[in-house]
Write a structure and sequence with these properties.
The protein has 13 helices and 2 strands, in the order αααααααααααααββ. The chain is mainly alpha-helical and 391 residues long.
Amino acid sequence: MQISSVGGMGLLDSLLGADGRKSFKRKDSDAGEAGKALEELRGSLYNELRTSEGAKRQQQRFCGPVVAMTFNFFVAVGIILTNKLVMGRVGFNFPIFLTLLHYAVSWLLLAIFKTLSWLPVSPPAKTTPSSSIFLLGAIMAFASGLANTSLKYNSVGFYQMAKIAVTPTIVLAEFVLFRKTISFKKVLALGAVSAGVAVATVTDLQFNAFGACIALAWIVPSAINKILWSSLQQQANWTALALMWKTTPITIFFLLALMPWLDPPGVLLFKWDISNSCAILSSALLGFLLQWSGALALGATSATSHVVLGQFKTCVILVGGYILLDSDPGLVSLSGAVFALAGMSVYTSLNLKESKDGSNKQIPVQTPVSKTKTSENGSEDSTVIKTTNDV
């Protein structure tokens, strides 16, 4: 057997020759180098996701403003239709408990992500005070719970009218908290958006005293909630999923406290059959996607832009229903929607221009400076590259 093996190897060597043996060795070497490079890339990506700064860079790389806003837009439209089904046809008239189910499912999914090591790392505890996390979780409970309660007791038009007040509230709060100002052109664009949405929804202003109080109480928590989400992600290296993981248990606690005050009794007597449970579970899954996409949008843009996106959604649904579904909201409402869309376009273009100008200021500009250099053999002209930074 040993002679046969030696003879086989000799036959293989004679057939391949020296070049063939070198080719096999080179292929083995190339495969080894490729595998080593792949392993190094995998290790570097893993290490990148194991730090809060790296995870934030990956979020910004794969989910920019356009992707985040588009994701949030489609999820928001989907959850509106699903919640309309749950509140209307299914008859689940418990808005706080429905919000609680949304956050409970979100927390369960985040726990699974953490078990599978898919959850991005949070920044060090010393960089973000625990009071900020607690405040955000509490305000989120009031913002989400009061929003669904307002939708229950008020018409969609009155809900949108209340949402208009969120925009100036955000501008004022950002000025008080962060001394942040906006340009006069943006003020005019936001004014056009608010006026257009007001005209578009003025024909649907049905409400009662309790619903109006809920809507007014929702404005301030909604504004502060958006500001905190945007601020923590942009200034403290938080990713959307990591911040959701920290705040969701606090939100669930406060929603449990709100249930006896705002929800009617009888949630345990509801008909929990397969059809109704699947509809409510679908709403809860979309609630997780809505919270995630909203957090991504707030991290990629700003609180004001996120509110404008919500108003854009209302106008698109109104105009789209008229074009595609033959609905007739009236000439006044359509004119207001078109006017609001024009204002949103101007506001978006101003944002893009400011973002482009800000990025240009961060890029070093290389300017050639002619300089004469003298050597031992004589003088010769050379070009020296001078790097300057725009401030």
